[in-house]
Amino acid sequence: MTSPYILILFHSRHGSVLNLARTIAKGIEKQGIEARLRCVGEGQEYPEVSLNDLEHCAGLAMGSPCRFGMMAAPLKTFWETTSTQWLTGKLINKPACVFTSSSSLHGGNEATLLTMSLPLLHHGMMLLGVPYSEPGLHNTKSGGTPYGASHVSGLNSSEQLSESEKAIADNIGQRLASISKQLTD
């Protein structure tokens, strides 16, 4: 039997979503559980996700750049291959969260987080947000919402996360891992 792990499934075009994924992974690992980064789409730094990765994870963090208030096409294409997992209930009751990045403050972060949640809810997953006990939500001048971690890169496409964005991403990673551990113990 393999040790439980949290799958961090993402697509990153310019590096901002990847930086959020790595920060969420650090939060997960603070809770003593493996963070397994997997991507969709060509030219990515991490291995391509498999359906096996998805089926056997203890929890899921999914990230995408904003594409007109929706997830990037490679992620949507991946979810369209998961009918068997949906029919057999392989993801029911697994905790999940979502994260995103846009180039502007009003670039669709919240809409993207909400639309990314839909396939997870269809699969019966338990969606986690960021509670307002996280001080980063009160301090952020860029990304970060109760719906999930986010980053605003600005017109210069800065990959650098603000301190509040880092704190929020770390928080959701720790929360996801903590709840995943409680459900698998």
Can you tell me about this structure?
Strand 4 (95-102), helix 5 and strand 5 form a beta-alpha-beta unit. The mean pLDDT is 95. This protein has 7 helices and 6 strands; from the N terminus they run E-H-E-H-E-H-H-E-H-E-H-E-H. It is of the alpha/beta class and 185 residues long. The protein has helices spanning 16-30, 51-56, 73-79, 83-88, 109-122, 135-139, 163-184; strands at 5-10, 34-39, 59-65, 95-102, 126-127, 149-152. Strands 1, 2, 3, 4, 5 and 6 form a 6-stranded parallel β-sheet that branches. Helix 1 (16-30) crosses helix 7. The longest helix has 22 residues, at 163-184.
What would you call the structural class?
alpha/beta
Can you count the beta strands? 6
Mean pLDDT: 95
Radius of gyration: 15 Å
Span of the ends, CA to CA: 14 Å
What are the segments in which pLDDT stays under 50 over at least 5 consecutive residues? none
Tally of DSSP helical segments = 7
Largest sheet: 6 strands, parallel
The 3D shape can be described as globular
Features:
185 residues; alpha/beta; 6-stranded parallel beta sheet; 7 helices
Please write out the topology.
Blueprint: E1 5-10, H1 16-30, E2 34-39, H2 51-56, E3 59-65, H3 73-79, H4 83-88, E4 95-102, H5 109-122, E5 126-127, H6 135-139, E6 149-152, H7 163-184
Parallel strand pairs: 1-2, 1-3, 3-4, 4-5, 4-6
Helix pairs in contact: 1-7
Short description:
The protein is 41% helix and 18% strand. The chain contains seven helices and six strands.
